[in-house]
Amino acid sequence: MLHALKELFESLLAPPGSQSPQEREHALQLATAVLLTEVMRVDGNSDAAQQAAIMAALRERFALPDDALAQLVQQARQAAQTANDYYHFTSSMNEQFTQAQKIEVVEAMWRVAYADAHLDANEISLIGKIANLLYVTQGEYIGAKMRAKEAAQSGSSPGA
Question: CB neighbours (10 Å) of residue 49?
């Protein structure tokens, strides 16, 4: 178990040129999953609706089969528990994601926050920090929040 976590962190910290395309993709998947998981964890309340929102966001973004999604979320939970900051997750996104993709991550984080019908101050703070680390502008941040809030109020799922 510890060996697997060590490999995951090494893959996140490795220079982009030294990773295979599959390793880079997995590192981005893991980074995204960690950030979404952190939104659920930050208020101390793991809710089934938030877990479903995480799975939906990851399924939409990465088109992974259910068993691979479950494994990714498990790895993300483990990585989140041992991480001391978010920089190594967001730096890989900044190098490889377009601005639109980074905004999608922020919107997915808002969807997770809104999924339990209770927006916590810690969730708001965390999403703001991550948005800053991803160089998402204030306008893009607010737009992502409003789209997620609207989706939560209408009960629609991502991509619907």
Answer: 14
Token couple for 89 = 């997750």
Residue 44 DSSP one-character state: T
- Cβ-based neighbours of 12, under 8 Å, separated by 6 or more: 27, 30, 31, 88, 89, 92
Say yes or no to pLDDT of 1 above 50. Answer: no
Q: Which of 58, 60, 66, 74 is nearest to 5 (CA)?
A: 74
- Do the beta carbons of residue 42 and residue 126 sit within 8 Å? yes
Asked if 83 contacts 89 with a C-beta cutoff of 8 angstroms, the reply is: yes
What residues contact 26, with CB distance under 8 A and at least 6 apart? 11
Return the number of other C-beta atoms located less than 10 Å from residue 19's C-beta.
Answer: 17
For residue range 137-154, what is the model confidence (pLDDT) as tens digits? 999 999 999 999 999 988
Phi then psi for residue 18, to 5 deg, are -90, -5
Nearest Cα residue to 57 out of 8, 49, 124, 80: 49
pLDDT in tens, 80-129: 888 888 998 999 999 999 999 999 999 999 999 999 988 999 999 999 99
Q: Which two tokens mark 150?
A: 């609207």
